[in-house]
Amino acid sequence: MHYYRYSNAEVSCWYKYLLFSYNIVFWLAGVAFLGAGLWAWSEKGVLSDLTKVTRLHGIDPVVLVLMFCGTIVLIFFLELAVAVLAFLFQDWVRDRFREFFESNIRSYRDDIDLQNLIDSLQKANQCCGAYGPEDWDLNVYFNCSGASYSREKCGVPFSCCVPDPAQKVVNTQCGYDVRTEPKSKWDEYIFTKGCIQALEGWLPRNIYIVAGIFIAISLLQIFGIFLAKTLISDIEAVKAGHHF
After folding, report:
1. Which of 75, 130, 135, 146 makes a 20 to 30 Å CA pair with 235?
2. pLDDT value at residue 217
């Protein structure tokens, strides 16, 4: 016959259900992002079969909470490290972004999603190219060299064009041949500022919004870490109070 002695320690329902709700919110957000990603891949024919789903058996709840807490802590410090490194090595970040943007300019017509991303970036920031409209010479369709026979030769994408308030329908050919004009007239038709300069100018104007977002995300993660650590302490206290 076994005798049990229970201590007064118990797992707090508040912390337990708060952590459960915290996990549910992030789980739903993760499912939404995963669903969007799978849908995008299926539309592009990337998905050809379903992978098998594995199950976990007999896992200690403390281990699961520790895994969750460790993941949140790791993400938090990775974000912090990225922010500090980006601040300290601004020139390096700027060069990497330039390489990324120029690489995407070369592939502009190869991927419709990439094309929409660049168009959205240029329209939202009223910019054209990485450092200016000449960057579109990197693309074979917009290149101004004599070897090109593209109709878009010496042009830019429509997202570089200065919008005409009188036009209700987007003119996707507004950038054709625009770079055959003298440079002094370019700003009448297209944005002449590069997107790197536009983003560099956008950040100081919106520094409080950006800082507020980062602080909110950090506080949310710290709150999750606090809940997980408190729940671990409660579980360990209850386990320590059980004697067989």
Report:
1. 75
2. 78
